[in-house]
Write a structure and sequence with these properties.
Low-confidence stretches: none
Radius of gyration: 16 Å
Strand content: 5-15%
Structural class: mainly alpha
Number of helices: 5
Largest sheet: 2 strands, parallel
Distance between the termini: 32 Å
Helix content: 40-55%
Length: 106
């Protein structure tokens, strides 16, 4: 599904593509430098929504497993048929999960 979405996308502006690439590199460098102990988030006492695409690749599901164990009030929603990019490939499904969570906890 993601491949079809990307294939249908217009050609990116080269200047914007370079700018975005620099941002992605910075994001990846920051993520690589982060501690891996999910327990550091255990002090969050508010309801927290964890969204996951059912087709998301490792190690993301394992990271969410650890985060779900660490967060005392976590709600996990798995979006069937979706990958990590559900915000792009299924925005209505993603928004529906967020809206339902907000109604329950807003």
């Amino acid at each position: 599904m993601l491949v079809a979405v990307l294939a249908a996308a217009p050609e990116p502006d080269p200047v914007e593509a370079r700018r975005e690439a620099r941002g992605w590199v910075g994001d990846l460098q920051q993520l690589a430098a982060e501690p891996t102990d999910a327990g550091r988030w255990s002090g969050i006492a508010r309801p927290t929504l964890l969204l996951q695409g059912a087709e998301t690749w490792s190690p993301l599901p394992e990271g969410l497993d650890a985060l779900a164990r660490a967060l005392p009030h976590a709600e996990r929603v798995v979006l069937e048929g979706q990958s990590h990019f559900a915000t792009t490939t299924a925005p209505d499904l993603f928004a529906g999960a967020v809206a339902a969570f907000a109604r329950r906890h807003g």
